[in-house]
Amino acid sequence: MIQESLLDTLLLDEGGSIVLLIMDGLGDTATAETGWRTPLEAAATPNLDELVKEAACGRAIPVSPGITPGSGPGHLALFGYDPITSEIGRGVLEAAGVDMEITPRDVCARANFATYDERGIITDRRAGRIPTEKCRELVAELAAASRMSRTSSSSSRPVWGIGSSPSCAATASTAS
Questions:
Q1: Does residue 143 contact residue 150 with C-beta atoms inside 8 Å?
Q2: For a Cys-Cys bond, which of 37, 91, 133, 172 suits 109, CB 3.0-4.6 Å?
Q3: Which residues, in sequence order, are bridge partners of residue 76?
């Protein structure tokens, strides 16, 4: 991780605003179908092309060379936390992202609705990216049969909370 004394020499206090665009999960493999280009290289990206003309762009190694972190540790590192010593699970990150009240005694789990075939094999880990409203309906049905609070952080990714905090005893807010 970057030493704080080094950061002090790099930081500029000039006011203004920034956009930190994290293109998580963008890496992919070049294939014959794309002319041996990655999907990003093959894609039409006029908006990104315009954005980078005015931007300071770069790449980051969020944890350490040779370590490919999951989204949770990667995002923590981008915001200055050491992902080796500041371990946090995806469920807690998702719950915090939709303002679900949680306490140290709670358990939060991020889930995906998925589609499976007649053999029980998952064929789509995001259930076709079901609409957020449908996700809310499904989560409400599941929560009615359990003691879990619920919130939907995106169309196919509900967050479940089990525990003692008020939002884990009642319906939590939902977000698109």
A1: yes
A2: 91
A3: none
